[in-house]
Design brief:
This protein has 419 residues and is α/β, with parallel strands linked by helices. It is 31% helix and 25% strand. It folds into 2 domains: 3-18 and 233-418, UDP-n-acetylglucosamine1-carboxyvinyl-transferase, Chain (Alpha-beta prism), CATH 3.65.10; 22-230, UDP-n-acetylglucosamine1-carboxyvinyl-transferase, Chain (Alpha-beta prism), CATH 3.65.10.10. It is built from 14 helices and 24 strands. It starts with a strand and ends with a strand.
């Protein structure tokens, strides 16, 4: 099992190119199931979850061709599908596997998808997906850890999500494009990844209005065609490198990013004394002209402060002057990184969905264990500012969502190696 060895205390400087968004690429790959024609994708990040999704599509007898050299590209064609099943063995580490449910039942009338796995950050049930598909006429059964859905053809329906759900919005959006009649999704997720998926579907011939707002209207069509599409930049990777530059007192230029997707993160880091300015198109420069200062933060659905940036922000808070209160409203079990930071010397008190961080505190290198994808990123950041040597174990978590993060950090001057 791989681990990172980090010698902390080095100022990061230089340029880093942001990869494509994993959370946009996964539903877009699943959307290729909606047509028999080729879907050509660009800016696909080379991360573990993408590899898993490609294997899953190949298991279904889709033809998947990946280009390794950057810019990473992928061609997917699902002319014939012999297995409309997503088995547990392939998807146990990746919750995004559930995104094949909507496309499969919409196009082929049947899907059998394992209940999803992924990060241990709290309950993330798919009951909202199932309720929506049932409203659209699907017959659903849950047996032996699998969801089975059947429908001769889905029908348009009024779908109100009781709780904002990104994957639920994406799944039902994909199901609705081939359904009979009109589907209206209310209280829909507004994340950029949802909008990116909708843009792909429209290129394929779907009739969609309102993506990026809380109400999305979809008029179903008989069939979709192939297309080409470039995946948006990864806003969470960009946010992580903004924090890396800030906590090390460095100066980093981020390229190939999308600043408008980072508004909440930029505003919060600016409140902490971080200077972030736009330069060329898709470029952000980060530096800290003085001392970091504490600021409270509450995670919210987009366009609020992303839960996927909460752990990284906690690392920054350990190095900021004053007390920061971090409130996690999305997941109920997403402070597992806090105990590892405390072992490194951080002053953090966790009470339910709130964490109180007193700073600045010097961090000491030790062996720490990553519990999930974003927690692993926060612990790498902690290692960058810790005294002596830090070993981050279970970095397979970070490989799920960050492309060559150790190489990118090393190019910026970090002393980090994979063991």
């Amino acid at each position: 099992m791989d681990k990172f060895k980090i010698q902390g205390g080095r100022r990061l400087e230089g340029t880093v190119q942001i990869s494509g968004a994993k959370n946009a690429a996964l539903p877009i790959m699943a959307a290729a199931l909606l047509t028999s024609e080729k879907v050509q994708l660009e800016n696909i990040p080379r991360v573990r979850d993408i590899i898993t999704m490609a294997k899953l599509l190949a298991h279904m007898k889709a033809h998947v061709v990946a280009q390794d050299l950057p810019p990473s590209a992928m061609t997917i064609q699902t002319e014939q599908i012999s297995h409309t099943e997503a088995p547990y063995e392939l998807v146990k580490t990746m919750r995004a596997s559930v995104l094949t449910l909507g496309p499969l039942v919409a196009r082929f009338g049947y899907a059998r998808v394992s209940l999803p796995g992924g990060c241990a950050i709290g309950a993330r049930p798919i009951d909202l997906h199932i309720q929506a598909l049932e409203k659209m006429g699907a017959k659903i059964a849950i047996e032996h850890g699998y969801v089975e859905a059947r429908a001769e053809r889905l029908r348009g329906a009024e779908i109100h999500f009781e709780k904002i759900t990104v994957t639920g919005t994406e799944n039902i959006l994909m199901a609705a494009v081939l359904a009979e009649g009109e589907t209206v999704l209310t209280n829909a997720a507004r994340e950029p990844e949802v909008t990116d998926l909708a843009e792909l579907l429209v290129k394929m011939g779907a009739k969609i209005e309102g993506a990026g707002t809380e109400t999305i209207r979809v008029r179903g069509v008989e069939k979709l065609c192939g297309t080409s599409h470039r995946v948006i930049p990864d806003r969470i990777e960009a946010g992580t490198f903004l924090v890396a530059g800030a906590i090390t007192g460095g100066e980093i230029l981020l390229t190939s990013c999308e600043p408008k997707h980072l508004t909440a993160v930029i505003e919060k880091l600016t409140a902490c004394g971080v200077e972030i300015r736009a330069e060329g198109e898709g470029e952000l420069r980060v530096r800290v002209p003085g001392k970091l200062t504490a600021a409270d933060v509450t995670t919210e659905e987009y366009p609020g402060f992303a839960t996927d940036m909460q752990a990284q922000y906690m690392t920054l808070a350990t190095q900021a002057q004053g007390t920061s209160v971090i409130t996690e409203t999305i997941f109920e079990n997403r402070f597992m990184h806090a105990s590892e930071m405390v072992r490194m010397g951080a002053s953090i008190e966790v009470d339910g969905r709130k964490a109180v961080v007193h700073g600045p505190t010097p961090l000491s290198g030790t062996t720490i264990i990553a519990s999930d994808l974003r927690a692993s990123a926060s612990l790498v950041l902690a290692g960058l500012v810790a005294n002596n040597t830090t070993y981050v174990d279970r970095v397979y978590h970070i490989d799920r969502g960050y492309e060559r993060i150790e190489n990118k950090l090393r190019d910026l001057g970090a002393h980090i190696e994979r063991l």
